[in-house]
Design goal:
With 210 residues, the protein is mainly alpha-helical. It is built from nine helices and no strands. Residues 4-26 and 28-41 have low confidence and may be disordered.
């Protein structure tokens, strides 16, 4: 692997694998751009952990965006795949499962805009949001078992550092400079001085290793 590829891999591990608290917004923003186009399937196989729900509620209490809250559920899915609990057909599908979990848990994550996803995906997201208005949605046990078995037959490469790195680059290409600037400004507002300082120091260490 050449120097550029090594740096990319290191940056991917730094930003996506450690999941430091001050990087949740970047993860959430990345997943929303690309995952909305992925057909959602087998999403009812997984119920989120209580620790994930608590982190998402804490994010909400701190005034963070629904996309940041949803990032907690995506994190759980990625971790589960890496631990071998189940697989995913692609990185997009893994992220789509996380976003679906978030909506069913009550995160007010808006459905994809028209033209950015199929009608089927958009309708699914709307249904999940509507059902979650009355509390977290529990899947049908029979459907959950069938979906779980299907996911267990899938591979685990969707959560690899290389796959996440490719996905990050694809997502970045689809965001305009204006979008990136707005996200950076919002992150600066919500992180606070301590977390901004920690993020800057971590970025400096990453560049030094490169």
């Amino acid at each position: 692997m050449d120097g550029q590829g090594t740096r990319s891999s290191r940056q991917s591990r730094s930003t996506l694998c450690t999941y430091a608290p001050h990087l949740r917004l970047e993860l959430a923003m990345m997943v929303l751009v690309m995952a909305s186009k992925q057909p959602i399937c087998h999403q009812e196989a997984i119920m989120p952990k209580q620790s994930t729900i608590k982190r998402a509620r804490r994010d909400k209490k701190e005034g963070k965006a629904p996309s940041t809250q949803a990032g907690e559920f995506v994190r759980e899915v990625i971790d589960d795949i890496r631990e071998g609990k189940h697989g995913a057909r692609s990185t997009k599908q893994a992220i789509a499962i996380g976003l679906s979990m978030a909506r069913r848990a009550g995160v007010k994550l808006p459905p994809p805009e028209k033209g950015k996803a199929s009608d089927k995906v958009r309708k699914q997201a709307k249904r999940e949001l509507k059902r979650a208005e009355h509390g977290p949605v529990k899947p049908s046990p029979k459907r959950a078992r069938a979906s779980r078995r299907a996911l267990e037959r899938e591979g685990h490469s969707a959560a690899s550092s290389a796959a996440l790195s490719r996905h990050t680059k694809q997502a970045a290409k689809k965001r305009t400079a204006k979008d990136r600037s707005a996200a950076a400004k919002k992150a600066a507002r919500t992180k606070g001085p301590a977390k901004r300082s920690a993020a800057a120091k971590k970025a400096a260490r990453t560049r030094a290793r490169g």
